[in-house]
Design a protein that fits this description.
The complex is a heterodimer of chains A (about 240) and B (about 220). Helices cover about 20% and strands about 25% of the residues of chain A. Chain A has about 240 residues and is α/β, with parallel strands linked by helices. Chain A has a domain of about 160 residues: Glutaconate Coenzyme A-transferase (3-Layer(aba) Sandwich), CATH 3.40.1080. In chain A, the strands form 2 sheets. In chain A, strands 1, 2, 3, 4, 5, 9, 10, 11 and 12 form a 9-stranded mixed beta sheet that branches. In chain A, strands 6-8-7 form a 3-stranded antiparallel beta sheet. In chain A, helix 5 crosses helix 6. In chain B, strand 11 and strand 12 form a beta hairpin. The two termini of chain B are about 20 Å apart. The chains are: A alpha/beta (about 240), B alpha/beta (about 220). Chains A and B meet through helix 5 and helix 6 of A and helix 1, helix 2, helix 3 and helix 4 of B.
């Protein structure tokens, strides 16, 4: 068999957030990376806030902060259910919980991370000491090892939206400083992972030993713009306790 | 006359527990102020070598070094309280699953947390008060399992004057049988087997001042 042109894989590169997110629908399970406002997918969130979709189940550590990040989707009543670890400092979320407009499942952060990791890596369940003797263990199997442990199940999603400093056209990703947090785990746990980067670079520009998330876990990538990269709480030297 | 420790003195007692090369996770709130105490010492005694420890932050940093300058503060360099930090030579970054694995896996020497109640079996309540605003447990339930030494730092009394050291926690638990040491403004206590062993009391403090049933107390100071 002869091939007239070199065989190339279909491109993962999209021109914009709008293009990369165009086929997302109401009711999906959506993971969003970031810790507080650190490493959140700003462009994808902004795009979602202009789309006519709602009834989302959002899996994210904080679900936004004071009107920023995913709180934009809260304000537009696009989220029906949230799975997260911390809801403090998020008045939109607190108000919607009180008014019964949204349901929230609180998960201990280490269990949250590990359940997402398990989903992406084919682990069907795991036992952890976290939560034994607390509300988290209610209704779950508890088994005695060297100490009692709770059985926890994977946490997967239809779509993950992720932000990174640098990514190449195959979807290999490099995160800046502490912006990695949940993002590589969520990228592995979602059927479609959409990455936005500040710098879209050619193949080979990220040295292989510096790839934090291999491109096999990334289905779509685009170059974002106008990043705010807000500092949530500025603390500098010389402030006494 | 008794002179309870102030916050800086409470934190200094915790810093005294650290050995060179140890790894420490600092919980949100009062424990994180250890960074500021260390910063302040460095400014007061600039010629003294800084304490050689590796501070872990569960959002994915090992080697937190205190506060940045206004010029070096970075939106992507924060601690678990979402405050800007700086890092020391030898620091590393990693994802949240590795970070909590580091904790649960027993690789962290000290975990310092705030508390609402600690009981005589070493159970901790610090994440929710029924009927009050919910904030979520964050990483607290994971942090109490696995660190070699779990230290709770809190004021000794509630606003109504009850001791936060109790026979049994009355608030929903963060973790069962997980606390090794409690540091309050009144003293240092080791809970376990239905007792609080008293390691040290603040100057002038007597057993009666603690407002803890006397049969729960064992003097070892």
């Amino acid at each position: 068999m002869q091939h007239a042109t070199p065989r190339r894989a279909p491109s993962k590169v999209y021109s914009s957030a709008t293009a990369a997110l165009a086929d997302l629908t109401s009711g999906i399970r959506l993971m969003s990376g970031g810790f507080g406002l650190c490493g959140i997918p700003e462009n994808s969130i902004d795009a979602l806030a202009t789309m006519p979709i709602d009834n989302l189940t959002v899996i994210s550590n904080n679900v936004g902060n004071s009107g920023r990040g995913l709180a934009k989707l809260l304000q537009r009543r696009q989220i029906r259910h949230a799975i997260c670890t911390y809801v403090g400092g998020n008045p939109d979320l607190e108000q919607q919980i009180l008014q019964g407009e949204i349901t929230v499942e609180l998960v201990p952060q280490g269990t949250f991370s590990e359940r997402i990791r398990a989903a992406g890596l084919g682990i069907r369940a795991f036992y952890t000491p976290t939560g034994v003797g607390t509300v988290v263990a209610e209704g779950k199997e508890v088994r005695m090892f060297d100490k009692p442990c709770v059985l926890e199940l994977p946490l997967e999603a239809d779509v993950a939206i992720i932000k990174a400093q640098r990514g190449d056209t195959y979807g290999n990703v490099w995160f800046q400083e502490a912006a990695r947090n949940f993002s590589p785990l969520m990228a592995m746990a979602a059927r479609t992972t959409i990455v936005e980067v500040e710098e879209l670079v050619p193949l080979g520009a990220i040295p292989a030993e510096d790839v934090h998330l291999p491109g096999i876990f990334v289905q779509r990538i685009y170059q974002g713009s106008h990043y705010r990269n807000e500092i949530e709480i500025l603390k500098v030297q010389g402030i006494t306790p | 006359m008794m002179t309870p420790w102030n916050k800086e003195e409470m934190l200094s007692h915790i810093i005294d527990m650290f050995h060179p090369g140890c790894s420490v996770n600092l919980g949100i709130g009062l424990p994180t102020a250890i960074l500021d105490v260390l910063d302040q010492r460095q400014r007061l005694l600039p010629d003294e070598e800084p304490l050689d420890i590796f501070i872990q932050s569960e959002n994915g940093v090992l080697g937190v070094a205190g506060r940045p300058t206004p010029d070096t503060a970075s939106a992507t360099l924060i601690n678990a309280g979402k405050e800007t930090i700086s890092i020391r030579a030898g620091a590393s970054f990693f994802d949240s699953a590795l970070s909590f694995g580091m904790i649960r896996g027993g690789h962290i020497d000290f975990c310092i947390l705030g508390g609402m109640e600690v009981d005589a079996d070493g159970s901790l309540a610090n994440w929710i008060v029924p009927g009050q605003k919910i904030t979520g447990m964050g990483g607290a339930m994971d942090l109490v399992h696995g660190a070699r030494h779990v230290v709770v730092v809190m004021t000794h009394f509630t606003k109504s004057g009850d001791a936060k050291l109790k026979a049994r926690c009355t608030l929903p638990l963060t973790g069962m049988h997980c606390v090794h040491t409690v540091v309050t403004d009144m003293g240092i206590f080791v809970p376990g087997d239905g007792r609080f062993r008293i390691k040290q009391l603040a100057p002038g403090v007597t057993l009666a001042d603690l407002n803890i049933p006397i049969d729960l107390l064992v003097r070892e100071d």
